[in-house]
Amino acid sequence: MEKEINGGSTVADVDDNATSCGGGVRDVYGEDKASEDRLVTPWSVSVASGYTLLRDPRFNKGLAFTEKERDAHYLSGLLPPIVISQETQVKKLIQHIRQYEVPLHKYMAMMDLQERNERLFYKLLLDHVEELLPVVYTPTVGEACQKYGSIFMHPQGLYISLKEKGRILEVLGNWPEKNIQVIVVTDGERILGLGDLGCQGMGIPVGKLSLYTALGGVRPSSCLPITIDVGTNNEKLLNDELYIGLKHRRVTGQEYAELLNEFMTAVKQNYGEKILVQFEDFANHNAFDLLEKYRSTHLVFNDDIQGTASVVLAGLIAALKLVGGNLTDHRFLFLGAGEAGTGIAELIALETSKRTNTPLDEVRKNIWLVDSKGLIVSSRKESLQHFKKPWAHEHEPVTELVDAINQIKPTVLIGTSGQGRTFTKDVVEAMASNNEKPIILALSNPTSQSECTAEEAYTWSEGRAIFASGSPFAPVEFDGKVFVPGQANNAYIFPGFGLGLIMSGTIRVHDDLLLAASEALASQVSQEDYDKGLIYPPFTNIRKISAHIAANVAAKSYELGLATRLPQPKDLVKFAEGSMYTPAYRCYR
Ligand SMILES: NC(=O)C1=CN([C@@H]2O[C@H](COP(=O)(O)OP(=O)(O)OC[C@H]3O[C@@H](n4cnc5c(N)ncnc54)[C@H](OP(=O)(O)O)[C@@H]3O)[C@@H](O)[C@H]2O)C=CC1
Ligand SMILES: CC(=O)C(=O)O
Ligand SMILES: [Mg+2]
């Protein structure tokens, strides 16, 4: 007897009444089997046994296949006789992952699981989110990208290189899923704070989209990671025989613009007007221009500029509860004036301007940035990149950060330089001598690039700093007290933000949606968190947090007339929760 499988849909028809298996929850996508139901590819294959089912990560359940399923799907004999639950599988796997001492080995084990059993991967990740986030995301994903060529086992995501110029639409067609809702795309030129990793940057879109599913509940089959390969200027990679990308220097100018334009056109043509494209880890000389160019024609979002801004603004709104005052009472100084730095600066200014009805230019005067050449001041204006110009205030030139702190007297210091250990003892002490509770955010990733460690921030400020970092740090004991550092990472925002856009059918991203996301995230910080000095809620509650972010973003989108999914659901939080993919196994007939 043979079972027919149509275009990637397997024998795994879902028993709609089988709630005991979990999963199969009806959601806004109709059902999370939506793409399974559709006959999506033009061919069909036949299988004589369930051997193929065991090797299809979307449907594989491993030892959790029940006796009935094993009989029905030709699996008998292909598995050892024991049947175990998904919970037991999770228990076994987390023990297995913990046995690895090297984080990269944990990463590889997780990627291997994702390729073997997708639902188990997401269940494990969600059940142990605080422990596994640093494995599948920063900091370990940074090392994985650096070594991608040598650890490369299974291709993940879609590679679009210059070789595909002129036929990108055709290449998109090779991806097995057709019902794509979110693309995360990089060209690998600024991977975290590690610089140009070329094609090996693929780890980033893959990791970000894993978080879209785990943290935001966007189903995995709707997510498409893409790396655009235009070459690399990284000499080490160019000379590495295991490098997986094009071995020439980056193309720039018109050739680059044409490839990106073909890509953006093909994406819309293939997936429609409402496909969300998240730009990730592009270098700033392209990032701002791409966002500007496509924001009025596509649903685009730059995570490094906009997502980071939204997460930091949320942390600052929350921090006001700990330090008092409102945003206008604070003065901000950034080390790093690129995508993250100027993106955050602009959103702080926008929120302050709206809250106080003060012109943007006026509000900006309270925000200062330092780049690799020193404080951004008006005498440098002519030579500054366009995104720095609004921050060129009247002041004498200052080259050292510590001097800038002593002269400007910021209440908030934010590191977005990509340069590790730049918040030296002098710097933290200067912040602590000017402020009772200095707010210090060391946002650069991965951990090696963090402007300071949590221990340094607490010790050098004698336990007075309100500290958060882009990559996680363990709690620190100082003077008999335990300090828990928060993680100021855009991972809090983009999954819920994206879900909010998708579930409301939003057609364009507006800055007010970012503000809505910040306010929603800040509202999720509990008194218990504040009591610990935290300005972000723990990731353990991330699905609830994402639902609130999604709901607030969607509500704002409806208010602005950008949402196309009508009528507007009455209870947007419930609607967001109901929309989320659940990784529990489904029962197969
Ligand atoms: N926590 C989070 O969620 C996020 C963290 N990040 C992290 O932020 C970092 C920066 O990212 P991004 O803004 O996109 O990068 P960019 O390259 O756009 O900007 C980096 C900025 O840092 C400045 N800089 C570099 N070296 C120094 C130095 N020694 N002293 C002072 N300034 C310096 C650069 O100066 P110049 O302009 O003169 O070259 C530039 O202005 C990365 O490490 C990234 O991982 C980014 C996004 C999100
Ligand atoms: C977190 C992130 O997006 C970055 O470091 O680039
Ligand atoms: Mg990024």
TrEMBL record:
A cellular component annotation (GO) from this entry: chloroplast
PROSITE patterns registered for this protein in UniProt: MALIC_ENZYMES (PS00331)
SMART domains attached to this UniProt entry: malic (SM01274), Malic_M (SM00919)
InterPro entries the UniProt entry points to: Aminoacid_DH-like_N_sf, Malic_enzyme_CS, Malic_N_dom, Malic_N_dom_sf, Malic_NAD-bd, Malic_OxRdtase, NAD(P)-bd_dom_sf
Positions with a binding annotation for (S)-malate: 190, 445, 489
Cofactor binding comment, as recorded: Divalent metal cations. Prefers magnesium or manganese.
Key words of the record: Metal-binding, NADP, Oxidoreductase
Active site: 137, 208
Cofactor: Mn(2+); Mg(2+)
Gene Ontology molecular function terms on file: malate dehydrogenase (decarboxylating) (NADP+) activity; metal ion binding; NAD binding
Pfam family, one: malic
Biological process per Gene Ontology, one example term: malate metabolic process
Superkingdom of origin organism: Eukaryota
Domain Malic enzyme NAD-binding: 305-558
Catalyzed reactions per annotation: oxaloacetate + H(+) = pyruvate + CO2; (S)-malate + NADP(+) = pyruvate + CO2 + NADPH
Residue ranges of every copy of the Malic enzyme N-terminal domain listed in the record: 114-295
Binding site for a divalent metal cation: 280-281, 304
Similarity comment: Belongs to the malic enzymes family.
Protein name as it appears in the record: Malic enzyme
High-level lineage: Eukaryota, Viridiplantae, Streptophyta, Embryophyta, Tracheophyta
